[in-house]
Amino acid sequence: MHYARSEAKDAARRQFTGLWAAMTTPFTPDGRLDREAIAADMEHLTVDLHVGGVFCTGVMGEFWALTNDERKQAVETVVEAATGNCPVLAHTGHHSALDTIELTRHAEQAGADFAVVINPYYPPSSVDGLRAWFHQVLSSVDIGVWLFDTNFSGTKLPMELIDELADIENVCGIKVGHDHERYLETLSRVGDRILVCEANEAMWLENMRDHGQTVYMSSSIPFLFQTTSWQPMREYTELALSGEYEKAAEVAATLDPLRALSSKWLHGQWLRDHIMPIPFIKAWAGLLGMSGGQPRVPLVGLSDEQLSELTADLTAVALLS
C-alpha cells in the first residue's frame, strides 16, 4: 500500500487495468498449505501470462477452508512473489467483523496493495445489520477496500447500501458476482465514485467497449483460457483498451469453444448443481501446468472418469497437445 486512506479511490483507478487472476490455493498431498506451489503459480501468472494483478485467498482460494494463520501465510507468500511484477488484492472477508479487521490489517502490513471483502455470509441479517458490519470493518482499516457482492455468499447487498458505502473514502471498487443486469444497475448507481467490475469473460469485450470497464477483476479464466504460448484473452484485452474493437472481436471469437467448456465444467456446475466449481478449476489448471491438486472438504476432487473427460475436452480444443 503506497497511498493514504483518502487516496484509495484514485490509487485504484490507476492500478486496476487489464486482466487480474483469482488464484486457487494449493495444498500438499498431506493437506497442508503449499507455499512453494503458491510461489510457482505466481511465477506462471506474472512471468508467463503477464497478468495485471492477482486476487488471492478468495472464493477460488477456498478461504472458508483456511485457518486465519493460513490465510495470512498465503497472502505473505503471494505478496513476496508479486513484488515488482504486479499488484496484489487480498481477500480478507470473514463472517466475523473482528476477524475481517484482523485479516485486513495483516494484508496491509504484509504489503498487499488492496483488500476485498465478501458480504458477511452468516447469519442472514437485516440491511441495518449489514450496514453496521461494513461500517465497523471499513472504519477500522486504512487500505483501499473492494466490496464483493456475490451470490456465492448467499446475501445480496441492497443497492441503497452499496450507494452509501461507495461514499466512504477507502472504498474503491465493487466486484459484482451476479448477472449482467445487476452489473449495469450497480455501474449506473455508483460508477461515478468507485470502480464497478463484472468478472464475466463473455461480457468483457462489451464492458470495455460500451461501459468503460478497464479491469477484468477477477476470475480463474485468465489462466484457464491461456497458456504460455497462446494468450488470446490478453491480446483482445489490449486491442480493446487501445480502441481497436473490431480486431478485438475477431480474437475474442476464437474463444467460443473454450466458453462452451467453461459452461460445461465451471459456471455450469454452479447453475446446474449448485456446486462450487473449484475442484474442476484446480483440475483444469493442473492439466495446464499449474499446481492444481485437491480441494479441501467439503469439496471433493474429480473422479478418474471426470478427469479423463476433462482432459479429452481440453485436448479437443487444442488447449492441451
Give the SSE string: HEHEHEHEHEHEHEHEHHHHHHH
Strand content range: 5-15%
Question: Averaged pLDDT, please?
Answer: 96
Tally of distinct domains:
1
| Major sheet: arrangement of strands | 7-6-5-4-3-2-1-8
Report the principal-axis shape.
Answer: globular
Account of the 3D structure:
The chain is α/β, with parallel strands linked by helices and 321 residues long. It has one domain (5-231): TIM Barrel (Alpha-Beta Barrel). 48% of the residues lie in helices and 12% in strands. The chain has helices at residues 8-15, 35-48, 68-82, 97-110, 127-138, 159-165, 180-190, 201-211, 221-224, 232-241, 245-253, 256-265, 267-273, 278-287, 304-316, and strands spanning 18-22, 53-56, 88-91, 114-118, 145-150, 171-177, 195-197, 215-219. Strands 7-6-5-4-3-2-1-8 form an 8-stranded parallel β-sheet. α4 links the parallel β3 (88-91) and β4 (114-118). The longest helix is centred in the first third of the chain and has 15 residues, at 68-82. The chain is globular, with a radius of gyration of 19 Å. The mean pLDDT is 96.
Summarize the structure.
The chain is α/β, with parallel strands linked by helices. The protein has 15 helices and eight strands.
List keywords for this structure.
eight-stranded parallel sheet, single chain, 321 residues, TIM Barrel, 48% helix, alpha/beta
